[in-house]
Write a structure and sequence with these properties.
cytoplasm, 7-stranded mixed β-sheet, disordered C terminus, isomerase, Rossmann fold, YjeF_N_dom, YJEFN_prot_NAXE-like, metal-binding
Length: 260
């Protein structure tokens, strides 16, 4: 097992890691099985999409707290896509506001589900700004959450997300990506050229289980989504992470073979 390069850097107290990464091995799950797992959780496990999204978004917000506490800068820019990954970002934004950050949201192509409308209303009630000028917002952000695309992304990037990823890629702002770095193929990792080819976020949080693209990732890695049960993990041949106490996330390392 090798730890991320960030583990070898001595960080100042304000941004020092919350705890050491766990030394453990977690199996990655394909996009097809990830979709099937979510379906099983709802149809067999009794979960609703709202519940799963709420816990996923809470995990994202907690991971932000671990890598970038408010003392390191409260201006967090969250970029959301039109699907469920974007929904996780909407939930995370609400929790970040309640954690003491001053988040803003860039949501250029908004999802049409009634659930997303309710999540937006919650953010409006907290006076979270929805920004129109992404380039200007990026220049003043202390931290960025990439909640554009998750395990269902099939590429290539289309307008406006190709431009957005290029701007994130070239910006000097630490990034946490949700489930997968946006623009990356879930199986084969970053694109060979174009937007995202050099995108390597500071941190990554895998929801439910890691995806195969994590084999190409170098940085701080978290597992989140504390709702898996033994019957689900047994069905998909996964490992049940040993979360500590009330924690919703667990930081783990990545080895050279892509197993976590």
């Amino acid at each position: 097992m090798i730890r991320s390069t960030f583990a070898r850097i001595r960080l100042p107290p304000s941004i020092r890691r919350y705890s050491k990464p766990a030394i453990m091995s977690l199996k990655a799950i394909s996009a097809k099985d990830a979709a099937s797992l979510d379906k099983d959780l709802m149809e067999v496990g009794g979960w609703s999409l709202d519940q799963l999204m709420e816990l996923a978004g809470l995990s994202v917000a907690e991971a932000v707290w671990r890598v970038h506490p408010p003392s390191a800068g409260k201006k967090v820019l969250v970029v959301c896509g039109p699907g469920n990954n974007g929904g996780d970002g909407l939930v995370a934004t609400r929790h970040l506001a309640q954690f003491g950050y001053t988040p803003s949201l860039y949501y250029p192509k908004q999802g049409k589900k009634e659930l997303y409308e309710r999540l937006k209303t919650q953010l409006h009630n907290l006076s979270v700004p929805f920004v129109d000028d992404f380039e200007a917002a990026l220049k003043t952000a202390d931290f960025l959450v990439d909640a554009i695309f998750g395990f269902s992304f099939g590429g290539p990037l289309r307008d406006p997300f190709d431009k957005i990823v290029s701007q994130i890629e070239s910006a000097n702002v630490p990034v946490l990506s949700v489930d997968a770095p946006s623009s990356w193929d879930i199986q084969t990792g970053p694109p060979k050229e174009g937007p995202g080819a050099k995108f390597m976020p500071h941190a990554l949080i895998s929801l439910s289980a890691p995806k195969p693209c994590v084999a190409f990732y170098h940085g701080r890695h978290f597992i989140g989504g504390r709702f898996l049960t033994k019957n689900i993990t047994d069905k998909y041949g996964l490992d049940l992470p040993k979360y500590q106490g009330v924690d919703q996330v667990l930081e783990i390392g990545v080895d050279a073979e892509g197993r976590l």
